[in-house]
Design brief:
The protein has 310 residues and is mostly beta strands. Helix content is 0%, strand content 50%. Pfam families: I-set.
Length: 310
């Protein structure tokens, strides 16, 4: 099969075009496929060169490397007859002859192959490159597109907001192709509604409550015909709120003579609450309670405080 699939083509002079030929059988070797030109006398003229790997439309991530070899189908062809050239924006060709550097050529005599080597690809390495046979004028063009992996920018991992406010969890994502972003909290995907609104650089949570606290996930997806990438950034949201007394706080505490009694106060608060105890004295009203005066001890836990009186 060929791609693109058109068989009747018309193109303007001084333009370029690429068509790929491949087998529907995965066991077929690349050496089993050739391109030939049909001459006026109905003879077939085989293309003098081939490349390996055979892909002509390439996409690779930035800072990665890639090597493609160009060789002749004629064993009598000299390696010096094959060159690699970069196709410039004005459609001119610039020969690549440097034996080192980020984009360079490398010769192999056994077998006779001229390699085009991309090391630590960068954005400016994107473009079209041509393997050219100087004698037959045959050429094969490859198109290199350098993609940028997903990166998170201005994305704090911890966010603190007051109850009833409307904070934005910032998650700014960059990459090429442009990443697609989805949000979830825990294992539950977030859908946009009156509570949540996805922005270009984050997630707006309106009128938050303490129930909205938790770990949110900013999931970025990137895909093309040849590349995929996925990255996740976790953002922990802490909702601060004033103390609220627990419903199960007892109103009375009982104890036995010569025994102990526990008086417990428990709240829900973020950040954790500090406790102060007071004692109501007849005719004097509320007075600070000092445990040592009564031989009592304080048992302090997170959002829970107990006086143990003997």
């Amino acid at each position: 099969m060929i791609s693109p699939s058109q068989t009747e083509l018309q193109r303007f002079q001084n333009t370029s075009y690429i068509v790929g030929c491949m087998s529907n059988d995965s066991d077929t070797k690349l050496d089993d496929i050739i391109w030939r030109k049909i001459l006026h006398n109905d003879e077939r003229l085989e293309c003098a060169i081939m490349i390996s790997p055979s892909q002509t439309e390439l996409q690779r991530f930035q800072n990665t490397s890639y090597i493609v070899g160009c060789m002749s189908n004629d064993s009598d062809t000299k390696l010096d007859d094959i060159i690699w050239r970069k196709i410039l924006h004005n459609d001119e060709r610039e020969k690549i002859f440097v034996p080192k550097g980020k984009v360079h050529v490398k010769k192999s005599n056994k077998p006779a192959v001229l390699f085009l080597v991309f090391e630590n690809l960068e954005q400016h390495d994107s473009g079209k490159y041509e393997c050219f046979h100087t004698s037959t004028k045959d050429a094969i063009v490859i198109d290199m597109d350098v993609a940028i992996p997903i990166t998170f920018m201005d994305t704090p991992e911890h966010v603190e907001a007051k109850e009833f406010s409307s904070p934005t969890l910032r998650c700014e994502v960059a990459g090429k192709p442009d990443p697609e972003v989805h949000w979830s909290v825990g294992d539950n995907p977030i859908t946009q509604d009156s509570k949540f609104k996805e922005l270009a650089d984050g997630l707006l949570i309106q009128n938050i409550s303490r129930r909205d606290a938790g770990t949110y996930q900013c999931k970025a997806f990137q895909s093309s015909k040849t590349l995929t990438d996925r990255k996740v950034r976790e953002i922990k949201l802490r909702v601060t709120h004033k103390p609220t007394f627990a419903d199960d706080n007892p109103e009375f505490a009982y104890g036995y003579m010569n025994g102990t009694a526990n008086v417990t106060c428990q709240v829900t608060a973020e950040p954790p609450a500090d406790f102060r105890w007071f004692r109501f004295v007849e005719r004097k009203g509320k007075r600070p309670f000092y445990p040592r005066e009564f031989g009592a001890i304080i048992i302090n836990e997170t959002n829970r405080n107990t006086i143990q009186v003997k």
